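It is worth pausing here to work through a concrete case rather than discussing structure prediction in the abstract. The textbook approach is simple: state the sequence, then state the predicted structure, then interpret. We follow exactly that order.
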Amino acid sequence: MAIEIKNIPVLKDSVAKRFCENADKAYSSKGSIEFKSQKDSVNYILEKSKLS
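Step two, the predicted structure:
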């Protein structure tokens, strides 16, 4: 039996333009996650456990 080939959705016209604008906006406003407090907690636990 053959496997059916599915159509790939394609954005056109205003929908594609809006998608690109939203993607650019999200990319430019992306942030980073600060793990300093978690790292300090882990280091404290490792120092107390005498494993490191």
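Step three, interpretation. Helices lie at 13-28, 36-49. The radius of gyration is 24 Å.
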